[in-house]
Amino acid sequence: MRFPILPFFVLLLITGSCGKKNELFVNEKPEESRFTKITLIEKLDEPMEIEVLKDGRILFIERRGKIKIFEPQSGLAKDIGFIPVYSESEDGLLGLAKDPGFETNQWIYLYYSPQGELSVNRLSRFTLVDDILDMGSEKIMLEIPHFRGCCHSGGSIEFDSKGNLFLSLGDDTTPFESDNYNPIDERSGRPENVDAQRSSSNTNDLRGAILRITPQTDGTYTIPEGNLFPEGTPDTRPEIYVMGNRNPFRISVDPKNGYLYWGEVGPDAQFDSLQRGPRGYDEVNQAKEAGFFGWPYFIGDNKRYWDYDFQQQKSLFEFDPKAPVNNSPNNTGLKQLPPAHPAMIWYPYADSEDFPMLRSGGRNAMAGPVYYYDLFPDSEVKFPKYYHGKLFFYDWMRNWIFTANFDENGDFQSMEEFMPSTKFDKPIDMQFGPDGALYILEYGTYWSAQNDDSGIYKIEFSFGNRKPIAKAAADKTQGALPFTVRFNSEGSLDFDGDELIYEWDFYGDGTEISNGQNPSFVFKKEGEFQTVLTVKDKNGASNQTFIPIVVGNEPPKITIQWNGNRSFYWGNPRIKYKVGVEDKEDGNLSNGGIPSELVRVTWDFLQEGFDKVISSEGHQLNENSLQLIGQDLTVKSGCNACHGLENVSVGPSYKAVALKYEDRPDASDYLVKKVLNGGGGVWGERLMPSHAHIENTEITQIVDYILSLSPNSVLNSKNRIGLEGELNLNKHVDCGTYLFAASYTDKGANGIAPISRRTEITLRNPLILAADADFFKGTAKANNQDSRIIKFTENSSYIGFKDIDLNYLEKITLSIDPNRRKGWFEIREGSIEGTVIGKTPIISNESRSSNSKERWFEYSISLKKSDKVSDIYILFQTETGVDIWNSFLMNTIYFENKK
């Protein structure tokens, strides 16, 4: 074959491109913008594990028994099988793996809880025939006894590169009857599932262990060399690779060196006990070889539990990690156990002293894959060499992903967060596909529920041209026919600076398309639609985002007549108000179309105000709403993992709780103590762990939000007021916040569900710490115990406040310290480029009165008259510059009303 003669520089570009690509991002961490998270499919029903096939299709299972396959060409998933399962508590269809020879034999392995009276969990092999699960092909490989109705089933399946199958099994032990310390209750006559010594530390029991077996073609298995107990060892099970596990829910195997990794879900004790042992920790573990990993005698880095006599309620001695002994009468295996291996990473509910990067909160550790760059030679979307040899581990409760780095001996060296600015909703499984992209299965917010925010996602990396980011917004998303919507693509961008092409599909079916960047569109048919925005760069790379549009029901409009400022209070005023409601389909209050009893008006006083709960993990709330704060805190605290708004999960629904306690005057205090201390017996045998790691004020706000879900609750009736009247602001002393709210839910129309609307007025003390502003740029906060001041670190730095009612405001008084510098402040309305409504002259130390010895002095700024509600910005300007030592400091801002 003859080749055309090419210029030398062209040959250099062609032959050198691959080599140059290999040199990129080897030691330098790539910026997050080079990763793109792509939605493949959403709204799954309790998805558990995935397997990415060579052709890009994805096998996955759902806990209630369905086996499905996602086909990227159509963007849909089809059911390919169903297994009747027992799906209460933590059981069901739990584990999935494809055979190493799947492309030719079509074998998959499932771990599940078979329906019926037989209380076992089962590992079986099945064959797919034309992409359908052949139920008659089942080869039962293992059956493990399991105490149904409680806890810790495990169930993760992984293969190593030698064809060995690993299966993780929980300890099958209730944690609740041992005060959330180690469950080693040996008393006769007690249920069998209160002693983990019968499982996790029993060499003759498969539970509380990770097994390693080698499947054979006939559906049996053999034992590979190197397991913990050689075949034939008395009182042992040769399938055990590692034991001493509590709930190893997700495991992975390094594809090159065979090291086993797993996330260990730990107990819930909040505090160390001198007589019981350490508080609870989750773990990320590494096993280079077979071994015993401590439970229920040790946790974390071999922190020791006590041998506790439940009969005498007496602690006897601390267990020895070098020579652990299992003397439980429920033990059927060896008494002398191997030395305990410590965890690789461990962390409690609170901030970790050893691994502070992992933060605090609920916890549910899981192990993901180890990445190797050279396993994906031909991929354009694979991860760079920077991640070569690193372990991806994640937490289901905390919604983060980290990578672990190892030294030349394979020992843990360091960690760093992966894509910290990206949102993950309860990641439950992940693996690198054949294209080197990371595929993530997200379970969604609520445990034991079909979640709209569940799904399968793909994270691709771009060495060169990056996919654009698609952002879309609409001025309204609900309304009656004809429904005109103004769309915009503000925030869409291309990190490579390419000009973007915008395509809008308004109905989501290709029937109405526009190529405008910010189009308007009139919807002329009723229904629920997904408007799609696709953005493309000049190289054809594209991305999409969606906006749900509901046409056929106009949202209600709530108005509040209010004869006072809507942001602050001064003294003890009396304020007249009147609430109005109009709805296009229902009518209005004045003509009787809307009954007055369906409009809920409340008046609350919060002594603590909103300062501590305005934001959650960096997400700023848009409204100072008691309900919104409560909703936000249920997510932040992890409550939504076990409770749904209306659906029963591990615990009762929030609405069921609200209805149960709606006529109890002490409901709030009672439930706060219940959440704080934990307990059970009200909603069944399942116990709720203590939540002492959450601040009392936040627990109170969560409880008050839950109780408010019943319209007849004591909380609601206590705070509910009429549609018009006069309010007396007399409950505050020096601080506190008043909250006025009016809400109405319409009746729905034209097949469209009812729509709720809520309008609020929040009044707070006009003296505000500068550090409690809503916006900051170019500033530094001092958060010492007795000092929360703001330092302006550069010219044109600022702080800002959201939604300030400028009506009745005359001045803003700043408490400042020029700190040997000169500068001035401008008050701007709406934005930092907005109208200047107040300005100081140049201020310096000389601006103080001659006899002032105080550090702080006050400077008042008169404001231009305005009746708007607007964001305001306090902008610092200087011509003398600032440095690390000397710059303007600000302590407080006082909003002064007209006398």
TrEMBL record:
This is PQQ-dependent sugar dehydrogenase. Residues 184-195 have a biased composition (Basic and acidic residues). Residues 196-205 have a biased composition (Polar residues). CDD domains: CBM6_xylanase-like, PKD. It comes from the Bacteria. Residues 468-545 form the PKD domain. InterPro entries: 6-blade_b-propeller_TolB-like, Cyt_c-like_dom, Cyt_c-like_dom_sf, Cyt_c_ID, Glc/Sorbosone_DH, Ig-like_fold, PKD/Chitinase_dom, PKD_dom. It comes from Shivajiella indica.
